[in-house]
Every structure is written in structure tokens, then in C-alpha cells.
Amino acid sequence: MKKHSARVAPLSACNSPVLTLTKVEGEERPRDSPGPAEAQAPAGADASGRTSHPCWRCSRAQLKKIFWGVAVVLCVCSSWAGSTQLAKLTFRKFDAPFTLTWFATNWNFLFFPLYYVGHVCKSEEKQSVRQRYRECCRFFGDNGLTLKVFFTKAAPFGVLWTLTNYLYLHAIKKVNTTDVSVLFCCNKAFVFLLSWIVLRDRFMGVRIVAAILAIAGIVMMTYADGFHSHSVIGIALVVGSASMSALYKVLFKLLLGSAKFGEAALFLSILGVFNILFITCIPVILYFTKVEYWSSFHDIPWGNLCGFSVLLLTFNIVLNFGIAVTYPTLMSVGIVLSVPVNAVVDHYTSKIVFNGVRVIAIIIIGLGFLLLLLPEEWDVWLIKLLTRLKVRKKEETAEGGADPGLGPQSKSRRARPSFAR
């Protein structure tokens, strides 16, 4: 019998500033069964005849998962905001967004080696690199990773990955990082619309509202700068980047389905190999045509390039494999929290003006993003919560009405002196 393992599916890049296009997809752990105080509430009446209310208890496993969730949120927020700000800083000395995209994507090659190190440290049944590689290659079919599979199932995603990254980085040159990061969150709305149309996913009214809010936020963000050509181009680049990443996610789910942790790590490493083999020629062409030109290799800020790549690699690892220690929703919250971080940094380092229109646009897009995080059964949960609150209120009212009736009897009992000792 095969052991059940969590699966990984593509994530909308709204959870990544540039490079993250996959995430762990799996069901959260079911809630613990009601505790004794909740399951046996009627039998838990005290001596006065009052029914004790159920008390909410949190197991040690849940506390541990929440603790790891807070750590993951902080890591996602800091790595995303840090990579975005470092990219902006890098362009002051090294104006080459496509070369930066190519350089950072090459680091994807480290995914599978890092995964194998974790496998050796944690797994009880240790396998060799070749055995683990062959097992993960089953994700591509019975024949494994063949040349045909490489060009039909990996190369298209490598192109989408590069386009997403390049459009995002190029947008950072045009507009401030706050607008770029918040507009990129609209990716989640695009994923829902494409999934609804292409994959026939379940229709949810609240997600349609979220998509409308995202589109309204894009329009308001454009209006905030007065429809200048420079800002309009930058916003168009961000929206294009979000659209490419949404297309990546939907096509991944349509063509490849879901993947285990090792299979996802191998797939990301294959994207890095594709980038090295087939995308390397483009930065070379851009250099000799002086579209992205630098006078000397000594003038390249290698520290910024490596720092940017390390932050993105860290962000990708945490976002893709953080599901193993916490809830997926908490990781998405880290994306939203990075927007105010970028806003604070922009306030002190750039000439951004937070007028009323821009602030409202940021709030609208953030609200739409949070609405998209609601689970499919959110309405059922809400009805159960309201029903439980209504029942509790009736119980309290009944107890309050029963106390006056018992008043005279209790008073008469208290008035009689008790000589029994």
C-alpha cells in the first residue's frame, strides 16, 4: 500500500514577487474532535443546575503549527519585500532586468539538491540520488523525463516563468515597489477567472466580487498617478506579469496536475536547467546590441545580484514547502503584509505620494486578495458559527429567566437557620 503524501500544485505568482510559481497544495488537517467538555456539555452541569459552556481547547500540535505559521509569515514577508527592494536598488547600478531575471532563475537548479539533503536528513528510508531522481521522474509519465517530455511539458513553463519574472522586474523600473507588489496580488483573481473558464472550477460569488475589486483597484491605481505614460506602462507590465503567472498555474494544473514535494523540486530544477541551456543566449544578444549593456564586469554589483537571488530562493523554498509545517493561508497572509513593508520603505527612500486614491486602491486590492483566501465551504462554516452563537444566546437567556423563579425558594432556604454541623 502506498503511503499518502502531500501534493504540490502550481501556485499563482501572487504569492511571489518574481519567481515563485508553484506551491504546496494539500488539505489542512481536520479539526480535532470535540473535547470532553464540548461533547458532554449536558452532563457537565454543575451543582447549581447550570449547564457549563464548551471551552475551546488547542492541542499541542495545533499550537506548534501556529508557531511555525508565524515564523513562515515573517520569513515570507521579509524575503519578498527584501527581494523587491533589493531589485530596485540593483537597477540604480545595473540597468539590466532580463539579465537579472536570467541570473536569479539559474539558482532554481538548487531546488532538487536541497530537497535531497532534506530527504536524507528526515526520511527513514534513505535512497540514493539516482533512485530518488528516477522516482520523481515518474511525475512526467511512465517513460520518465525524455527529450520529448522536456520540450513539451517543461519548456513552455520555462518560457512563462521567464516572461513573468522579466515583466515584473521591468515594471519596478517604471513605478514604485508599493504599486508593483500590490498590483501583482491581482494574480490570484486572474487565476480564479482562468480556472473558472478553463478548468470549470466551482463558481463562487465572493470570488467574483474579489475579481471585480482587483480590476477596480488596477483602474484606481492608474488614476492615482494621473494616467501618465510612464506609470501606465509600468502598471501594464505588472498586470502582464500577473497574467503570465496565472496562465502558468492554470496550464500546470491542466497538463500536469499535482506533484509531490520531490517532484515539485525536480520540476523547478528542470526550469533552472532550461534557463541555462536555452535562455542564456538572450542576455548575450542584449549585451552586444547594447540594449542591456555594462562597461565592465567589475562594475556589476555582484553582491546585489547574489543577495537578490538568495532572497528569492529562500522565498521560493519557504512558500513551496512551508505547507509541511503550517497552514497555506498563513503563507498567503505574508504576501499581504509585505505590501505595507514596501510602502514604509518607499515613503522614506522615494518620492511616492500616498494620496487618497492610491490608499483606497491598495485597500481594495488587499481586500480582494483576502476574499480569495476564503475556503470553498466558508459559507457553511459561517452558518454553523452563527447558529452556535444563536443557541448560546438562547441558553444564556433561559438561564437568566430561570434565576428569578428560583429566587424566593433560595431566599426562604437562606432564612432558615441550620443547626446541623
TrEMBL record:
GO biological process: thiamine transport
InterPro entries attached to this UniProt entry: EamA_dom (IPR000620), EmrE-like (IPR037185), Solute_c_fam_35_mem_F3/F4 (IPR026505)
Pfam families: EamA
Domain EamA: 68-222
Region Disordered, annotated ranges: 25-53, 393-421
Bias-annotated ranges (Basic residues): 411-421
Key words, A-Z: Membrane, Transmembrane, Transmembrane helix
Name under which the protein is recorded: Solute carrier family 35 member F3
Species of the source: Neovison vison (American mink)
Gene: SLC35F3
